Amino acid sequence: MARLSAVVAVVLVAALVAAETASAAVSCGEVTSAVAPCLGYAMGRSSSPSASCCSGVRSLSSRASSTADRQAACACLKSMTGRVGNMGNAASIPGKCGVNVGVPISPNVDCSKIN
Asked: Which segments does the entry list as coiled coil (predicted)?
């Protein structure tokens, strides 16, 4: 139940952040939807990312084509990793899916330095 509450909190935070990043073409809601299938792997409940996770990461990568898009996606991912808790596998998802998203998945990244 606590994890479900955490996921609900992430979705709510993502919706709030989406309002702040309206100038970017990629919304926080889109980022959240794209990576939602990845939560099981990110939190260590699955041994590898699912096909739907990798599909979402690929989709996000193709949509985040500008610096503003990547910075917006970074802010959403940073917020998500900071609020959900133990997401130790999150940073390895792009590599496991064979995708270079150009955005580190970490609560410690400075999104303003993303090109």
From this structure: none
